[in-house]
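Submission checklist for the structure archive. All mandatory fields must be present; incomplete records are returned to the submitter.

[x] Identifier: SP family sugar:H+ symporter-like MFS transporter
[x] Organism: Salinibacter ruber
[x] Residue count: 492
[x] Sequence attached
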Amino acid sequence: MSDAGELDEDELTNASGGGNGNLTAILFFSFVAALGGFLFGFDSGVINGTVDALQTEFNSSEAGTGFNVASILLGSAVGAFFAGNLADRFGRRPVLILTALAFTVSALGSGASSGSAEFVFFRILGGLAVGAASILCPAYISEIAPSGIRGSLATLQQLMIVIGLFMAFVNNYLIAGAAGSASETFWLGYGAWRWMYWMETVPAALFFFTLLFIPETPRYLVAAGKENEARTVLGRLRTAVNIDDKIADIRSTLEKESRPSLSDIIQKHTGQIHPLVWAGLGLAILQQFTGINVVFYYGATLWQAAGFTEASALLTNVVNGSVNVFFTFVAIALIDRVGRKPLLQVGAFGQAVMLGAMAYAFGTAAVAESGSLEMGETMGLVALVAANGFIAFFAFSWGPVMWVMLGEMFPNKFRGAALSVCGVAQWLANFTITMTFPIMLENIGLGLSYGIYAFFGLVAFAFVMLFIEETKGRTLEDMSREAEAGIATQQP
């Protein structure tokens, strides 16, 4: 999906007699779209407290447990791949509504599952919703956001993701605490782990009903030939700008574009994938290869392997989630001031250092007869501080900034195709890391596993330094024109 219809900051701030009212509307529409991010986070994090209960309930092997956890990511890859084209064809809002329904059905079905196959089916359905939300929610926000605060508003999506993760951890901790453990019986005679999933239906319903009150984006409406509706929406977003000129600007960009297609990412004069797409793929994959979702998906398992009790491990997850939320606010404060590239560089290096400290703490710990690590008080504290430091560096850098960059860096001509490809790569990288962690934990241990993730942190630092350009303060149209000009100069 291309984003030619975003509002310029001067158009917003120069609007007479109601700039605050326009900003209020933009914030409300952005918040509703970002609720998809909340569900993205909740659905991704709820599995964290149920891994052991699922293994017991379904009598799963290590590989089977990994697939139970990672199955959502297969759906996420498919959802991310098709979301852009579906939204270009039917509109952003209708596809978001379908996404909300998929979240609801997935939550109900996952909690009601009686076997691995049934559970995996509903988790894949939830993954479709997560993948679609990961693409559509920031794209919707970008299409209605003024350029001067586009980074901050797009980061709202990541903030809601981490709040969703945090609430999933709290949800798991409270339910497991009340029942005795995730495997014990809770309300109405159902297992506690089932209620952990069923609780997601509340925010899913809220997302569905609030979506009924937001408009379609102006850019899609112009593309669909509904210019009168586009004028109405633009009028709700700002009051004293020349709406006809803005419609003409959107239309002129559309006239330069062909129907969105995956072939758009191939340079016609070279027959090769556009370098910007390779840069986006690198960002998408490296965000996952530092192992962030090992902490969020397997946090309880990880800390129990390190010698913590289930209750202590779940409480540690809540602390991790709190750190994640706080430092995402830091990202919102810095992204439009400091820029995207510096945050990515600092974050990558900081993650590598923290992961190295975790690798040392885990790698030097003694192994008990039960197989869990026996960490002394000092090394246990080092591991906890390093884990939260790792999350902090991720939360103000690669967590939100990667998605912001992907929404900004591609030209209008192939933004939809590039987002689809990078979205698939991100979710497949997530799947790879999630599937391999239980196997790595069993065969090489926590220390070496985290040493591998630390190495990829250094790779990420070098990659950003060499291949990523700053996008702060530049309009999407300006970057599109520069990219097109670059393509033209490369032609023989």
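[x] Structure attached
Curator remark: Residues 1-21, 487-492 have pLDDT under 50 and may be disordered. The two ends are 29 Å apart (CA to CA).
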